[in-house]
Amino acid sequence: MDAKFVLHTSSPFSSLAHRSYTCKPPVRSPPTLAVLTSPTETITQEATKTTTSVIYNDNWFDKIAINHLSQSVQAASGLRNSKSGYESLVEAAKTASHNFNPIQQRDIVIQALQIAFPRPILSLIKTVLPQSKLAREYFAVFTTVFFAWLVGPCEVRESELNGRREMNVVHIKKCRFLEESNCVGLCTNLCKMPSQIFVKDSLGMPLNMVPILPICRF
Q1: Would you tell me how many other CB atoms lie within 10 Å of the CB of residue 63?
Q2: From residue 180, how far is each of 26, 48, 142, 183, 200 by CA, in Å?
Q3: Mean pLDDT, to the nearest integer, of 49-74?
Q4: Going by C-beta distance under 8 Å and a sequence separation of 6 or more, which residues neighbour residue 173?
Q5: CA-CA distance, 67 to 53, in Å (whole number)?
Q6: Residue 52: per-residue pLDDT
Q7: DSSP letters of 20-88?
Q8: Rounded CA gap, 203 and 129, in Å?
Q9: Number of helices (H), then strands (E), in the chain
Q10: DSSP symbol at 152
Q11: Whether the Cβ atoms of residue 154 and residue 19 lie closer than 8 Å to each other
Q12: Each residue of 166-208: pLDDT tens digit?
């Protein structure tokens, strides 16, 4: 799946081989944009299956980051699991989805992200990098470098904002979380929605992730 995150404004944390998610900014205040591309295989409302999968060779940084986020989600939900690596993160998300309603799931992820990323650091970033072309392009590059362990390989692409070209799109070729969880519901409630809220509130950077599937547009 391909994915694309685009940072847009007016003034760091969701695909399979051919499906796509596109994040477009609101009309009045364009936010960060994210686009994910998904597979052409049969897609149901709750699950997406593909015949191919990517093998990830996580390095020491990836493993630390994955474990930290997994432990943060488990701490926020109060539900522990004994698995390790990325499997533990997916299990934590699935457990939360089975025990809480969609609104509670989003709140749990936001709380987990607040645990994972210290508020003083986020406040500093928000102060040093207010909404601007520089900030949007910086966040795009930062995402591709430091969050590939979460969403899979990605690259920065160009888009147009207010008549100007900016390198503010993060294109994710195949979203790792969606592929591993194999569930669109988890993508929406435990990634898309809480991530948009967290990034906007914590970093002051509006983010709108809009999945575009062969059968629907959100």
Answers
A1: 14
A2: 30, 10, 23, 8, 26
A3: 86
A4: 1, 2, 3, 37, 152, 153, 154, 155
A5: 22
A6: 61
A7: EEE----SSS--EEEEE---SS-B-SS-B--S--PPP---HHHHHHHHHHHHHHHHHHT------HHHH
A8: 8
A9: 9, 7
A10: -
A11: no
A12: 998 888 888 898 888 888 888 888 998 999 899 999 988 887 7
Q: State the pairing for strand pair 2-6/164-172.
A: antiparallel
Report how far apart, in Å, the C-alpha atoms of 123 and of each of 5, 44, 118, 127, 140 are.
22, 40, 9, 6, 19
Residue-wise pLDDT for 7-19, tens only, equals 544 434 333 333 4
Pair 150, 180: CB distance under 8 Å: no
Residue found by looking up tokens 């100007």 in the block: 164
Query: What DSSP assignment string belongs to 97-126?
Result: HHHS-HHHHHHHHHHHHHHHS-HHHHHHHH
